[in-house]
Amino acid sequence: MARAGARYPQVDPGARALISAPLATGSATSSARQALDACRRAGVRALAIGSRRVVRERDLARAVDWGLGDRPARLAAWTGLPVVGIETAEIEVRRHLIAGAPMIVVRDGSRLVGLIDRQSANVQAPMSALPSVLRPASEELEARLAFLRAVGSIAVDMGTRAFAVGGFVRDLLLERPSPDVDLVIEGDGVTVARRLADAVGGTLTAHEAFLTASIKGGRAPGGAPLGRIDVASARRERYERPGALPIVSPADIDTDLARRDFSVNAMAIALSPPAFGALLDPHGGRADLTRRRLRPLHPLSFVEDPTRMFRAARYAARLGLRLETDARTALRLALCVGEYPALSGQRLEAEIQWLAAEATAAIGFELLLRWAVPALWDARYRVSAASVRRVRALARLSSLMRRAAPDAPAADLSLTALLLDQSPAVRIACLDRLAIRGQRRRILESAAAGSLARRLAAPALRSSEVAELLRPVPPIAVAGAWLRGGRRVRRRVEWFLTEGRAVRPLLSGDELMSLGVPRGPAVGECLAGIRRLRADGIVRSMGQERQFVKRWLRGPRPEPTPVPRGGER
Which of 291, 322, 339 is at the close of a domain? Predict the structure, then answer.
């Protein structure tokens, strides 16, 4: 019987008690199929390949099912894992897991005997509440907090739990603005979304088949406008084929977080009282944010959904994160798969649209080139130093186009830069893979070709000739000439976009007819003549335009030598 006030020794079971799966040792040169056979013969769920590399039986099985059985097993392995002795104190083991290690290898002497994973160890970060949520520092955050509390209360009234998840939590930890909110409901998320839409006065769009809904135009308690609210039922996802849309089914919040793309997006904040503000971080996303690293949740992440490669570039560029070693290995493995017939061109093209809309798009597209991701469109795609330079120039070009041609699609600017250096056959194959057709395709093909840049490079072009050459050309094709051309071509394109395209006669058609120009085609011809002279700097005032019209009516006259502007300089 325990005595009051007595002190008793605490027994630390050590790493031995935390082992979640036994571990066998396999060959570092084995294929995925051979490693899977070795796992099954040994009756284990994981195989050690080298001292700090582990491959799990379930990943090997999926790799074989997806046609990767002959690839080296090490490509589906976790690397750089912490190794602890079997008697290592439990608190030391948990420190490794809290720091973000997905699993820990346990050693007994020189023999590797087991594996400890985060889920089985039930690890949570020591600071479970988010100070920035619990102590709002602005009116906007105060309104958001009131809204999140309302969500939690609605969920409790309906007998379930609600969580803020994904990018909202990530951005909150980074103290970045996050106008939209992603919510996950354990249970019927669409029904909760309907009640929430009534509460905030927003417009609901439900997607029953995907267990999701979205609300737009709502207002927080107090009247502050809310951004887009996405509500989803907590779910698990199963991918039958690489690149296919997943088959979804209801699940709990832990399973929902485990299906996500990167650890930094696999965090949640509890919204239901009394646990409001508690941070769920089962995959070490907070530690990865601190270390500025981007880590997928498992080695086959990019294989099951190749669009994650584009999202990796988007997050890395926007947040200043780096793709860590396991992620690069996982990406290389995904590029070995081939054509991904289950992955539609529309999904690939949508990722280009989202990346192109980012302020850091040029950095993101450069990362895609350095990772060789465009080979996903066509295996013959080749990256050159010129490709990288042109993609880097996108930031300057995009700024120029936003001012001069704001309607030019940012995604098409980026695609033009990415396709310029490829052969015509590869360009055609890439556009086919992205399912780009019709007029848009014709413009992109024209923009990626070199004929316009070659014409603009001619040494003796007047400004008016530059303007006449570029005026009928779609803005994307003009941008393509800028990307392909040298300094002279770029100067001429920039002059046209900033000055030349806006050059117009001061006289109107009616004023020309009052001066004696016959009604009909002659008015257009005369206006075109004035526009050319204004582009060349010969005519600058309305009076000079009238003098030109008088000369024009008397018959053709040699035009004066133009002042160099956007043409020869």
Answer: 291
Token pair 């040029």 is at which residue?
362
Give me 118's structure tokens: 């985060």
Q: Specify the pLDDT at position 569.
A: 45
pLDDT of residue 126: 45
Give the pLDDT score at 523: 93
Are the C-beta atoms of 35 and 60 separated by less than 8 Å?
yes
Residue 176 CB contacts under 8 Å (≥ 6 apart), including other chains? 319
User: For residue range 62-91, what is the model confidence (pLDDT) as tens digits?
Assistant: 999 998 999 999 888 988 788 999 999 988
Residue 231 · residue 189 · CB < 8 Å? yes
Q: Bridge-partner residues for 204, per DSSP?
A: 215
Longest dimension (CA), the chain: 122
Which residue range forms the structural domain that includes residue 232?
A: 131-291
433 touches 384 (CB < 8 A) = no
pTM above 0.85, yes or no: yes
DSSP secondary structure of 29-48: T-BHHHHHHHHHHHT-SEEE
Can you give the C-alpha Rg of the chain in angstroms?
Answer: 31
Separation between Cα atoms, residue 525 and residue 536, nearest integer Å: 17
pLDDT band at 405 (very low <50, low <70, confident <90, very high): confident
The sheet with strand 111-117 has its strands ordered as 21-22, 111-117, 103-108, 83-85
Q: Provide the CATH number for the domain around residue 178.
A: 3.30.460.10
| Helix 345-356 × helix 424-433 angle, to 10° | 100
**b/e per residue 412-438 (b: at least 16 CB within 10 A):** bbbbbbbbbbbeeebbebbbebbebee
32 and 68 both lie in a single domain: yes
Whether the per-residue pLDDT at 241 is higher than 60: the answer is yes
Q: Which residues have a Cβ under 8 Å from the Cβ of 499 and sit 6 or more positions away?
A: 565, 566
Given its phi and psi angles, is residue 525 left (phi above 0), alpha (psi -120 to 50 degrees) or beta?
alpha
**Same domain assignment for residues 207 and 354:** no
Is the pLDDT at 1 greater than 80, yes or no?
A: no
Give the model confidence (pLDDT) of 143-188 as tens digits.
788 889 999 999 999 999 999 999 999 998 888 888 789 999 998 8
Please tell me the distance from the alpha carbon of residue 397 to that of residue 361, in angstroms, as a whole number.
12
Backbone φ, ψ for residue 395 (5° rounding): -60, -45
DSSP 311-343: HHHHHHHHHT-EE-HHHHHHHHHHHTS---TTS
**What is the DSSP track for 129-150?**
B-HHHHS--SHHHHHHHHHHHH
Structure confidence by residue, pLDDT tens digits, 493-538:
999 999 998 999 999 999 999 999 999 999 999 999 999 999 999 9
Residue 387 lies in a domain: yes
**Number of domains within the chain:** 4
When pLDDT is cut at 50, 70 and 90, the band that residue 352 belongs to is very high
